């Protein structure tokens, strides 16, 4: 998945200062969806091009499903620009998106000649033009043809935008409109997406002739969210990163609340040596590293790519012996996991086939036998609050349990392996459906006493 930014502003290599990426280097970044690279195929005083290349995690591709029976194996996600690329752009060019440059502050605030190319993008030439032309871009959207033996044009275009635009504005246009043209997001769209839309659309979205289409598609056709966003645009209410005046009270994202709840539980049991089982890209590990009470931290995952991503996220080479990453399958016994104060299975068990769950229980609770185990998993009863959600919250989930089912499993597991267990909710509590996440804190008799 590729996007290039070219300028002929002199000296053109000032683009490196605006992007905060040196033109003489290849930069790589671990992002939640894979690995992003920034490199410069050309860089001199007359012309400079920065390329953003996203290598999408194959596990994410396997989670993709649509009406096509084999879509989890054959799909356009590695190539067609989408919210995957938009999210990578937001992380890699975060400073440039804000229009900030320590080295070239005046240039960051000025329009410069830009040429942007997105070689593969879903959309018709007409729709692409309707979205970008009102923003001052000259638009060339060339349909990508099928192979000659098939004939005709595909649903993709090769897009080139040219114009004199402030770089921050150009990046914000892309951040919003790439997922709008793809008409889908790789993550669940929650109310805080309104704030992202209004912040990135500041100064241009309210006057855009296609603002209704943009709001609906960006917010995944969730009518209530789109209506709220359009009302705020009409009211011209200021939205800042620190505090957005939304009709829905701002709360920390559920993922953040979940991490905080896990860290609190670890503190509650006095854990110093901690296992993060199924650590993925390292989100919980990053939170654990910040707390000096955790003196030894081990992240374990079966996917080497996830471990590589976690290593980059943590800058693990700077952490010495305090943090280690190991590859292991949680359904097999591993002596390296023995002897720890606590183990965390955060949003892991629902990815395990139910017939394999007893093997995980035996390996973690029986063989590794930490003094405490913390398990979090979705509460399926809460799913009714997610507008438009059908089925489970993630296509890779093998099951999602009600509160009674989770409590039953936790009680049986605790009895079998000599633990006591308490269960609590994480996130906004509803009197009927409970909280979105359920957490079980298992303790050995020693810890319970």
Automatic annotation (TrEMBL):
The lineage of its organism: Bacteria, Bacillati, Actinomycetota, Actinomycetes, Micromonosporales. InterPro entries: 3'-RNA_MeTfrase_Hen1_bac (IPR024026), Hen1 (IPR026610), Hen1_N (IPR024740), Hen1_N_sf (IPR038546), Methyltransf_12 (IPR013217), SAM-dependent_MTases_sf (IPR029063). Keywords: Magnesium, Metal-binding, Methyltransferase, RNA-binding, RNA-mediated gene silencing, S-adenosyl-L-methionine, Transferase. Residues 1-233 form the Hen1 N-terminal domain. It is an enzyme of class 2 (transferase). This is Small RNA 2'-O-methyltransferase. Its cofactor is Mg(2+). PANTHER family: HEN1, SMALL RNA 2'-O-METHYLTRANSFERASE. Residues 275-373 form the Methyltransferase type domain. Belongs to the methyltransferase superfamily. HEN1 family.
